[in-house]
Amino acid sequence: MNRVSRKVMMAWIGMGTRFLPFADAATIDMPLSRLLRLSLFQVSVGMALVLLVGTLNRVMIVELDVPASLVGVMISLPLLFAPFRAVIGFRSDNHRSHLGWKRAPYIFRGAMLQFGGLAIMPFALLVLSGGGNATSAPAWVGDFGAGVAFLLVGAGLHITQTVGLALATDLSPPESHPNVVGLMYVMLLAGMILSAMLFGAFLADFSPGRLIQVIQASAVLTLVLNTCALWKQERRVSGLMSQPQHSKPEFRIAWSQFIQGGHALRRLIAVGFGTMAFSMEDVLLEPYGGQVLHLSVGDTTKLTATLAIGGLFGFGLASRVLSRGADPFRMACYGALVGIPAFAAVILSNPMQSTLLFAIGTAGIGFGAGLFGHGTLTATMNLAPRNQAGLALGAWGAVQASAAGVAIALGGILRDIVAAYTNSATPNDATGYDFVYSVEIILLFITLITMLPLIRRVSGQAIREG
Amino acid sequence: MSDDPNKVWPTGLTIAESEELHKQIIDGTRIFGLIAVFAHILAYIYSPWLH
Questions:
Q1: CA A252, A396, A224, B15 torsion: positive or negative?
Q2: What tens digit of pLDDT does each residue of A355-386 get?
Q3: Is position B20 within any domain?
Q4: Where are the domains of chain A?
Q5: Considering the domain boundaries, does residue B6 fall inside one?
Q6: What is the mean pLDDT of chain A?
């Protein structure tokens, strides 16, 4: 180690723990203010999600004239990282450090990656679009740059969210898990809504300079939010390094151990099917409202709000009921049961030409998805073996994020295929949409069948490992 | 951590701990630097210094 490093190190020692992000030991209870602060990482994740899937999707196609197929590839790149959430969670479970940290280093690196991706994103996109002088550079530079940017942001947000949720699980006692989950979901949703509105407002009069400002501002905000969220949160475990390490922990062994306990596989399958069922309509509801029910653009954006409000009510109700000790799987089943008539209402709104029915169906979908998501995440937290919280939440996140991503893409593809096969001459034909909604109802039934045994077997506190 | 024989004066941070903290900072700075270089290259390709 060189002299400068040694000096800086001595400075850290001199500063001690007061000015460094170390939590004071032995704070058992978790006050709401601290929990709220921790949930800021979800705001940054929500912001990144909206930017990738919503704002940049539109900006690249409309303002920057990038081919839609290339945009599709770029936007699905972060999805490649979703399955690795289980590995990330596992690695953070077994992290060995002198400082006694397991989660903080990962959240820090996740935030750093997301920041880095967002920092190069605007330039990468401008080069990708071939603006300015970029035409003189070979085309692969733009593809490569944008690919790296999207991968970095995706990796960052998956790491931050997985390890952040694991940290939240560590910090809160089991009886307050329902409230923690509710808060995390609400903050994610709040982050998405707020940043969608802000991005929209700031990018209203588009210019390359403005794009750079907006995306880089979100990069800085990522670091600020995550630092605030992480500051003095994680309890330091002393003696992590003094424990003898028999052999390097292997992911395969940990995974097979995890998958055997508490019907983990069945739970993950249920999460996958349920998430797919509640995600396929994601990009279809707005065009359905516009093409089939002839709603105006303003009305269709209100749809998104309706969906979100339904979700908020779902999270709220689930938090209330589950914190009184109800079975989270029962709650998730109620979510699926609400979803079935909601999708039916959306299908029926076309023959009846009823906007009201459509709105009720949309709110119902949001409500059901809220109950389902809350129920499954609470169950994951409650059933996570104490030394495998990261792995359990990583597995949940991997299945959830992959299923959602695949389902959203599949929804659009299925609608196009069915619409092409039925050879609809009229543009307001609903066959394609109805097919997707019907598939979602079938998926919800499959989810219910998968989950029903979990309600009976995993009742109350009977199976709590750790 | 109070029973650690390597305890350094009153702050409670040991040599090993501060080394690890330092490693995080250095890693962060390296990532930061790499990203800055990459961003500058892309910006230069787009327009040899933005006007």
A1: negative
A2: 899 999 999 999 999 999 999 999 998 888 87
A3: yes
A4: 30-234, 257-456
A5: no
A6: 85
Q: Do domains A30-234 and A257-456 have the same CATH topology?
A: yes
How many folded domains does chain B comprise?
A: 1
Closest residue of chain A to B15, computed from CA coordinates: A13
**Cβ–Cβ < 8 Å for A268, A396:** yes
**Contact at 8 Å (CB) between A229 and A39?**
yes
Q: Decide: A195 and A46 in contact? Cβ < 8 Å.
A: yes
Residues of B in contact with A99 (CB under 8 A): 17, 20-21
Cα(A138)–Cα(A160) distance, rounded to whole angstroms? Answer: 34
Q: How far is A164 from chain B (nearest CA, A)?
A: 18
Top-tier CATH class for A30-234: mainly alpha
Predicted pLDDT at A428:
57
Tell me if B29 is assigned to some domain.
yes
Out of B12, B22, B43, name the one closest to residue A17 (CB): B12
Q: Which CATH superfamily is domain A257-456 in?
A: MFS general substrate transporter like domains (1.20.1250.20)
Q: Which residues of chain B make contact with A112, given a CB cutoff of 8 A?
A: 28, 31-32
Dump pLDDT digits (tens) for A188-212: 988 988 898 898 888 888 888 899 9
Residues of A with CB under 8 A from a CB of B: 1, 5, 8-10, 12-18, 20, 97-100, 105, 108-109, 112-113, 115-116, 119-120, 123-124, 126-127, 131-134, 137, 141, 145, 148, 208-209, 236, 238, 241
| Cα-based angle A196, A50, A75 (whole degrees, multiple of 5) | 140
**Span A147-161, pLDDT tens digits:** 999 999 999 999 999
How far is the C-alpha of A49 from the C-alpha of A117, rounded, in Å? Answer: 13
Residue A92's nearest CA partner among A377, A383, A393, A379 is: A393
Q: Which two tokens stand for residue A52?
A: 């990738």
Contacts of A119 in chain B (CB under 8 A): 35-36, 39
